[in-house]
Design a protein that fits this description.
- The chain is an alpha+beta fold.
- It contains 29 helices and 34 strands.
- The chain folds into five domains: 116 residues, DNAb Helicase, Chain A (Orthogonal Bundle); 253 residues, Rossmann fold (3-Layer(aba) Sandwich), CATH 3.40.50.300; 132 residues, Endonuclease - Pi-scei, Chain A, domain 1 (Beta Complex), CATH 2.170.16.10; 207 residues, Roll (Endonuclease I-creI), CATH 3.10.28; 62 residues, 434 Repressor (Amino-terminal Domain), CATH 1.10.260.
- It is 38% helix and 22% strand.
- The strands form nine sheets. Strands 1, 2, 3, 4, 5, 6, 30, 31, 32, 33 and 34 form an eleven-stranded mixed beta sheet that branches.
- Helix 1 runs parallel beside helix 3, helix 14 runs parallel beside helix 15 and helix 17 packs across helix 18.
C-alpha cells in the first residue's frame, strides 16, 4: 500500500544479539520484550532462534555453538557467514543495555505489525464481499490479538495489591525434620510426598469446580508462611485482585460469596484487616498476564529468581498456556509446555505446581474418580488394530507390547507431510472402554474410543467431534518403506495362484484349478522353480477345467509332509477356506517389484480387467473375494505399489457369502496398475481396450483431492494477508470469476499447488505434494465395550493403524500427578460431604495413595481433617 521501507533499527538488532553473546544472563530480560519474528532482518531472526534453542537446552550460546548449529542446518552462509556472526559477537561493549536495545526492537516490530494489520484491514474493506459489521469485528479481533502480545507488568507484590503495611508473620514449623521439600500445610499429604521436592513438576488436575485454584493458593500461602521463600503465582484465568480476595477469605475464614455481594459484617472486616496485615509481609508475587507462553514464563521466573530468590512456582492453569510456536496439534503443544516446565523446575531447583483441567471424558464413566489415563486425551484403539511398521510388517497393537526388538512404526511428519520411520517409546493397555467403528469412502475401517484423535485438514479431532463427510488423512502410498527381498519372484507368483484358485486344505490333494491351459502350465513351471525335484506337478483335463496336482516326489508319512503344504503352513495360509483367506505377513515385507509379481499372478485368478458397458463404457479393474480380510490385505498391498483402491461389499442375496470387491479407481491408478502390475493369460489381451479408452479422455480427479475446507482455512486468510481480492486471485488462477462458489469445490493436487503459489501459502504447497490421501467418512457406529490400547511415538506423536493416520498418547513429564475429587459434586447425598480426596496417582520417587482433606465451600479453603485418612499404596 505504501512504497516505504518498514520501520526498523538494524543497530538495535545487532546490539541485542551482541549483548546476548556477551552475557547469556541477558536472555531472560530480552525475551520479556521480543521474539525471533520481531527482528527485521531474517538473518537476525535465525540467529536469535538458535540462541534461544541453546539456552533452553541448558547450553551456552556463544560464537562457537551458534555457528556450529548454523553450519549443521545449512544456514551459516544465509546469515552472512562466520565473519558476520563474529561481528555480532563483538559489537556490544556491555550487556547492561540489552533490555533497552530489546525495547527498541520491540517498538519497531510493533510499528511494522500495525502497518501490516492496517494493510490487511484496508484490503478487507476494499473487497467488501462480506458483511461490514463482521469485518469490523474481525478488525477489532486482530487489533486486540496484536495488543495481547505485549507483556506489561511482570509481577505485582502482594503488599502493593493490598496497599497497606503489615507485620511479618511468625513462620509455622510443623513436623520439624520430617519435611524435606516445600511443605504444603497438609499433614497427610506431606507425609506421603515429604513436601513438594525441588526439581519436581507437580500436576494437580481436576474437573471444573473441584477447587483447583483454591488448592493452589492454599499451597502457595503455606509455602510462603513456612519457608519464608518467595512464591511466584502465575494466573492465566483470574486477575490478581480476584486471587488476593480468594486468599484473604480462605485464610481469614470469611464467606467469599458474602464478600462478593458486599454483605460483610463488622466482624468480617476485622478478620480481613488482621489477615491482610499478616499476608502483606509474605513474599508472594502474582503475575496475571493472559496469553502467557512457556518462554515468557521461563523468563519471568528466572528474573524473580535472580532478583529475589524463589521457593515455589504455581501455575493456574496449564491448558491456558501457549507453547510460543505455531502448531496445529494442541495436545503436542501441551506436552511441550509440560516438558518446558519440568526443565524450568530442574534449572531453578524449585518445585513447579501446574494446575490442569480434565476433559469431560471423566464424567462419561460411572466411577467419576479421575485416573492417570484421563490426562492422556488421545484415546485408544481396539486390540486387533494393525500398526504399520517401517519394514512393511503390520502388527496388532495388542501384540506390540510384548516385542522387545528395535522395530519402528511409520508416522506422519507434520512439517514435511511425508511418511517416515519413528521409534516407539511405550505401548500399554488402557483398560476396557466403549469402541466405535469408523468407516471411510474407500472402505477403510478402524475401531477406536470416542476421544481418540484423527488427522483432518483443520487439525487433530476426536472421534466424537468428527461428522459424516469429514475427510481424514490416510497414507497415499507405501512405496518408500524400508524393505529387502526375502522371497523370490517364483515363490510369490506361485503363492498368488494358490491363494486365488488353489485348494490348500488338510486331507486333500494340493491342487490348482484354471480354465486356461497356459495358466496351468505356468503354475506347474513355478512349482518346479520353487521346489525343484521335491514336487512332481501333474496337469489333468476335467471337462472345461485344467487341474494341476502338486504331488510330492517322496512317499508321505506321519513325519514327511507335502513340501507345498509345509511351505504354505510356514507362511500361515495353509488350511483356509475361501472366506478365511489372507495374504501372508511375509509378502508385505517384500520390495515393490516382488509385490507387483504377487498381485499380477493373484489377479489372473479372481481378478477382473477390461472395459464394460455399451452406452456408457468404463474401464474396470477389481479383485473379488468372499474373505473380507483378504480384500483389506489386497487394498493394503496396492498401496505398497502406490495405487489407491476402494472396497465395495457386494451382497449375494442368499446365493452364498457376500463378496468383497477391491476396485482400482481413477485414470492414474488404473494406468499405473497396467504398467507396473499387469496380468497374464487371456486377461492380458484386455489391457489394450483400457488404454484406448483413456487415450482421448482427460483425467478428472475425484478421489485424490485436497478437501474444499482449505479454501476457508488456508487460502482465504493467506489471500487477505496479501491484500488480494477474490476477483484478483481467481484471475491469477486462470478461472472465470465465480465469487465464493469456487470455495465449494475440492482441489486436485495440481490446482492446490497452483493456488499455493498464488497466495504464497507454504502449508498448502506441502499438502499438494504430501504422502497423504484424504478419505471421506461415511459411517461412525458404536460397537460395545472391549480392551483397548495405545502407544507413544516421541517427536511425531502419531502413527498409522489400519491405514489411517491416528494420534498417540503422551507420557507425562510430571514427577507427581495429583487429582482432586469431591464426591458431593456428583452425589449431593454422599456421606463424604465437605470432604475432598487428594489422589496421589503418580509419584516418581515415593508412594501413591489418597489423602482426605476438609473442603469449606464458603471459604473456598482446604483444611486438614482431625482424623488420619490416608490409604497408602507402596
Amino acid at each position: 500500500m505504501w512504497d516505504k521501507v518498514p520501520p526498523h533499527n538494524i543497530d538495535a538488532e545487532q546490539s541485542v544479539l551482541g549483548a546476548v553473546f556477551l552475557d547469556n544472563l541477558a536472555i531472560p530480560k530480552v525475551v520479556r520484550h521480543i521474539r525471533a519474528e520481531d527482528f527485521y532482518m531474517e538473518s537476525h531472526r535465525v540467529i536469535f532462534e538458535i540462541i534461544l534453542e541453546l539456552e533452553e537446552g541448558g547450553h551456552a550460546a556463544d560464537l562457537v555453538t551458534v555457528t556450529d548449529i548454523l553450519r549443521r542446518k545449512g544456514e551459516l552462509e544465509k546469515v552472512g557467514g562466520i565473519s558476520y556472526v563474529a561481528t555480532l559477537a563483538n559489537i556490544a561493549p556491555t550487556a547492561a543495555n540489552a533490555e533497552y536495545y530489546a525495547q527498541i526492537v520491540e517498538e519497531k516490530a510493533l510499528l511494522r505489525n500495525l502497518i501490516n494489520l492496517a494493510t490487511r484491514i484496508a484490503g478487507m474493506g476494499y473487497e467488501g464481499g462480506e458483511d461490514a459489521e463482521r469485518l469490523m469485528e474481525e478488525a477489532e479481533r486482530m487489533l486486540m490479538e496484536l495488543g495481547s502480545r505485549r507483556t506489561s507488568t511482570v509481577f505485582t507484590e502482594i503488599k502493593d495489591i493490598l496497599k497497606d503495611a503489615f507485620k511479618q508473620l511468625e513462620y509455622l514449623y510443623k513436623h520439624k525434620g520430617e519435611i524435606t521439600g516445600v511443605p504444603t500445610g497438609y499433614t497427610d499429604l506431606d507425609r506421603i510426598c515429604q513436601g513438594f521436592q525441588p526439581n519436581d513438576l507437580i500436576i494437580v488436575a481436576a474437573r471444573p469446580s473441584m477447587g483447583k485454584t483454591s488448592f493452589g493458593l492454599c499451597v502457595a500461602y503455606q509455602a510462603a508462611v513456612q519457608t519464608g521463600k518467595p512464591v511466584a503465582v502465575f494466573s492465566l484465568e483470574m486477575s490478581k485482585e480476584q486471587l488476593v480476595q480468594r486468599m484473604l477469605c480462605a485464610e481469614a475464614k470469611v464467606d467469599h460469596h458474602k464478600l462478593r455481594r458486599g454483605e460483610m459484617g463488622e466482624e468480617d472486616w476485622v478478620k480481613l484487616a488482621r489477615q491482610a496485615r499478616e499476608m502483606a509481609r509474605l513474599p508472594i508475587f502474582i503475575d496475571d498476564s493472559g496469553m502467557l507462553t512457556a518462554r515468557q514464563l521461563r523468563a519471568k521466573s528466572r528474573q524473580i529468581y535472580m532478583e529475589k530468590g524463589l521457593g515455589l512456582i504455581v501455575i493456574d492453569y496449564l491448558q491456558l498456556m501457549h507453547g510460543g510456536k505455531r502448531t496445529e496439534n494442541r495436545q503436542q503443544e501441551i506436552a511441550d509446555i509440560s516438558r518446558s516446565l519440568k526443565s524450568l523446575a530442574k534449572e531453578l531447583n524449585v518445585p513447579v505446581v501446574a494446575l490442569a483441567q480434565l476433559s469431560r471424558s471423566v464424567e462419561q464413566r460411572q466411577d467419576k474418580r479421575p485416573q492417570l489415563s484421563d490426562l492422556r486425551e488421545s484415546g485408544c484403539l481396539a486390540g486387533e488394530s494393525l500398526v504399520q511398521m517401517s519394514n512393511g510388517e503390520r502388527i496388532p497393537i495388542m501384540n506390540l507390547s510384548t516385542r522387545n526388538d528395535t522395530s519402528q512404526v511409520m508416522a506422519l511428519n507434520e512439517t514435511t507431510w511425508k511418511l517416515e520411520p519413528a521409534k516407539i517409546r511405550k505401548v500399554w493397555c488402557t483398560g476396557t472402554k466403549l469402541v466405535f467403528r469408523l468407516v471411510t469412502k474407500s472402505g477403510r475401517e478402524i475401531r477406536a474410543t470416542a476421544n481418540h484423535k484423527f488427522r483432518t485438514v483443520e487439525g487433530w479431532k476426536r472421534l466424537d467431534q468428527l461428522k459424516l463427510g469429514d475427510h481424514l488423512a490416510l497414507p497415499r502410498s507405501w512405496e518408500r518403506l524400508l524393505k529387502k527381498a526375502t522371497m523370490t519372484e517364483a515363490e510369490v507368483s506361485l503363492l498368488g495362484h494358490l491363494i486365488g484358485d488353489g485348494c490348500t486344505l488338510p486331507r486333500h490333494a494340493v491342487q490348482y484349478t484354471s480354465n486356461e491351459i497356459e495358466l496351468a502350465k505356468t503354475v506347474a513351471d513355478l512349482a518346479k522353480d520353487v521346489f525343484g525335484e521335491l514336487v512332481i506337478p501333474r496337469i489333468e483335463r476335467q471337462s472345461t477345467w485344467w487341474q494341476v496336482y502338486l504331488v510330492a516326489s517322496s512317499h508321505l508319512t506321519h513325519g514327511n509332509r507335502n513340501p507345498v503344504a509345509k511351505w504354505l503352513d510356514s507362511l500361515g495360509v495353509w488350511g483356509y477356506r475361501s472366506h478365511e483367506k489372507r495374504v501372508p505377513q511375509k509378502v508385505f515385507q517384500q520390495p515393490v517389484e516382488i509385490i507387483n509379481k504377487f498381485l499380477r499372478h493373484l489377479w489372473v485368478t479372481d481378478g477382473t480387467l477390461g472395459v464394460v458397458g455399451h452406452k456408457k463404457p468404463r474401464p474396470v479393474i477389481y479383485y473379488a473375494t468372499s474373505s473380507k480380510m483378504m480384500a483389506y490385505d489386497i487394498q493394503h498391498l496396492l498401496l505398497h505399489c502406490g495405487i489407491i483402491s476402494v472396497i465395495h461389499r457386494v451382497p449375494q442375496r442368499g446365493k452364498g457369502r457376500d463378496q468383497w470387491h477391491v476396485v482400482v479407481t481413477g485414470k492414474p491408478n488404473i494406468i499405473k496398475f497396467i504398467n507396473e502390475i499387469g496380468t497374464i493369460g487371456v486377461k492380458a489381451k484386455r489391457i489394450k481396450s483400457i488404454l484406448d479408452f483413456y487415450r482421448s479422455r482427460e483425467h478428472i480427479p475425484n478421489n485424490d483431492i485436497i478437501p474444499a475446507t482449505v479454501w476457508r482455512t488456508l487460502v482465504d486468510p493467506a489471500r487477505r494477508e496479501m491484500g488480494l481480492s477474490q476477483r484478483s486471485m481467481q484471475c491469477m488462477l486462470g478461472v472465470s470469476y465465480c465469487g465464493s462458489t469456487l470455495y465449494k469445490h475440492n482441489l486436485s493436487r495440481k490446482r492446490a499447488s497452483t493456488v499455493a503459489q498464488v497466495v504464497q501459502n507454504e502449508f498448502l504447497n506441502r499438502l499438494s505434494n504430501s504422502d497423504v490421501f484424504w478419505d471421506r467418512i461415511i459411517s461412525i457406529e458404536p460397537e460395545g465395550m472391549e480392551r483397548v490400547y495405545d502407544l507413544e511415538i516421541p517427536g511425531y506423536h502419531n502413527f498409522i493403524a489400519d491405514d489411517v493416520v491416528v494420534h498417540n498418547s503422551l507420557e507425562q513429564d510430571a514427577d507427581v500427578v495429583m487429582f482432586i475429587y469431591r464426591d458431593e459434586y456428583y452425589n449431593p447425598d454422599t456421606e463424604k460431604a465437605s470432604i475432598a480426596d487428594i489422589i496421589v496417582a503418580k509419584q516418581r520417587n515415593g508412594p501413591t495413595g489418597t489423602v482426605e482433606l476438609g473442603f469449606i465451600k464458603e471459604f473456598t479453603r482446604f483444611v486438614n481433617l482431625a482424623r488420619r485418612s490416608e490409604r497408602e499404596q507402596e
